């Protein structure tokens, strides 16, 4: 299999649903609707390291480096929904019970199908997969329409890349997870801006802003 392609079974091998990208191609903004997702958001020091890595990768792969303030790892993608349903998403976020955990980002990969270069983990911890799977199951239970897709935890670093980055293992970057966030993606002419709607802390860890 072409290594650049997404595998059938990701490191979190359980199938779990992920929402269709409804309205994804539409540049028209509707004030009564919003595009949302749950994600891990790196603290500033980690975001800086990831951004340095993104720039190093882009120097080889070409394409567009993600802005430092937009770097994240998606847990569950909801897509375009009526704004009045955001409170339901917040309720789902608040029911998650998890304790702090850490993992290493130690891989750099490229998917040819969507031309993104991303950082990921060769050994994603069960806690990460469990958080994503539970979120998506509960979203489904709450009536959000989700599609079947494997969960491959990743941080997109470069979009529209033209070739493989020259290196595929990296000096491990440690990510300590103390919380996760609900994010609104606001499309602009220059790409997406992200707004953190709500932060959900681990049961044993205070999470700062
Ligand atoms: P990507 O970086 O791999 O494109 C905001 O768009 C976030 O949601 C990004 O992390 C993006 O992943 C992710 N995303 C977009 N569409 C998605 C989909 N249909 N399923 C899962 N994640 C999606």
UniProtKB/TrEMBL annotation:
Enumerate the SUPFAM superfamilies for this protein.
LigT-like
Question: Where's the Phosphoesterase HXTX domain?
Answer: 43-118
**UniProt keyword annotations, A-Z:** Hydrolase
* The organism of origin for this protein: Azoarcus taiwanensis
Q: What Pfam families does its record include? A: LigT_PEase
Short motif (HXTX 2): ranges: 154-157
Its EC number is 3.1.4.58
Q: Write out the catalysed reaction.
A: a 3'-end 2',3'-cyclophospho-ribonucleotide-RNA + H2O = a 3'-end 2'-phospho-ribonucleotide-RNA + H(+)
Q: Spell out the residue ranges making up region: Disordered.
A: 1-30
Motif HXTX 1 extends across 72-75
Top-level EC class: hydrolase
Name by which UniProt lists this protein: RNA 2',3'-cyclic phosphodiesterase
Q: Name one GO molecular function term.
A: 2',3'-cyclic-nucleotide 3'-phosphodiesterase activity
Protein function: Hydrolyzes RNA 2',3'-cyclic phosphodiester to an RNA 2'-phosphomonoester.
Q: Which family does it belong to?
A: Belongs to the 2H phosphoesterase superfamily. ThpR family.
Concerning Gene3D superfamilies, the annotation shows:
Cyclic phosphodiesterase
Q: Which NCBIfam families match?
A: 2_5_ligase
Where do the catalytic residues lie? 72 (proton donor), 154 (proton acceptor)
């Amino acid at each position: 299999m072409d290594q650049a392609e997404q595998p059938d079974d990701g490191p979190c091998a359980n199938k779990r649903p992920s929402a269709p990208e409804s309205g994804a191609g539409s540049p028209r903004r509707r004030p009564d609707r919003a595009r949302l997702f749950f994600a891990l958001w790196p603290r500033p020091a980690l975001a800086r390291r990831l951004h340095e890595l993104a720039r190093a990768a882009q120097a080889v792969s070409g394409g567009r480096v993600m802005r430092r303030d937009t770097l994240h790892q998606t847990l569950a993608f909801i897509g375009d929904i009526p704004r009045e349903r955001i409170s339901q998403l917040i309720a789902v976020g608040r029911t998650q019970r998890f304790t702090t955990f850490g993992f290493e980002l130690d891989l750099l990969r490229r998917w040819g199908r969507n031309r993104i270069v991303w950082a990921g983990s060769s050994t994603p911890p069960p806690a990460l997969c469990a958080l994503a799977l539970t979120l998506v199951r509960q979203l489904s239970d709450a009536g959000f329409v989700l599609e079947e897709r494997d969960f491959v935890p990743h941080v997109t670093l470069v979009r529209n890349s033209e070739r493989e980055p020259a290196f595929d293992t990296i000096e491990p970057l440690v990510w300590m997870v103390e919380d996760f966030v609900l994010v609104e993606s606001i499309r602009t002419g220059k790409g997406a801006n992200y707004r953190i709607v709500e932060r959900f802390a681990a049961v044993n860890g205070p999470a700062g802003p």
